[in-house]
Amino acid sequence: AMAMLAPAPGSPSMSDVWYHPLPGPKRTLPVRDTRRFGAAREGMRPEECEGGDAGVDIGTEKGMLVLAVHDGVIERVQRDPEVGGRRGNEGRFIMILHKGGTITTSYIHLEAIREDLRPGIPVRAGEAIGVVGDTGVHNSGAHLHFAISVRESPDGPELYINPEPLLLLWPLVNRPAATLHAMSSASTSHPKTAQADGRSDL
Hints:
Elements: H1 2-5, E1 56-58, E2 65-67, E3 72-78, E4 92-98, E5 103-114, E6 122-123, E7 128-132, E8 144-150, E9 159-161, H2 164-169, E10 183-184
């Protein structure tokens, strides 16, 4: 799984590039142990996370752009900050499917989400999809909770992996491409956007 996510030796193909989810020029990583994969958290957690956090918490600047790390298709968009995911404390979030549904990336606690995004919409690596926020956050400030899960097949069991080694390798986007779509913090979707109520294993 890690080989599928790591940069290829030499110049990566533009069709298979993976980017850090927060733009440069500074590389953003977890700043303390409580923000790392597997850090102690309340409630039931996946076994592979040692009963702790299933992703990493990065960035502290509210309003910073959040980028799609790879080409993919939107799986779920949750715009209502009071609903959240399975545990009800994820706030606004986006889930993106990659590699035919065998890899999922999750972007959680967003302040706003691009108004055109809905399930089935394709996105490209490095595209802005939302902004860092603190929705669903109770005991810490604004940040992006970023998670990666993998499956052998789209219908197979889900396994969370530690994103931090990849965040050290993935290139930074210093100037994210402009989008014609506004970032919206509305709880309801754009008139042409259907709010998803699909799967969430966050």
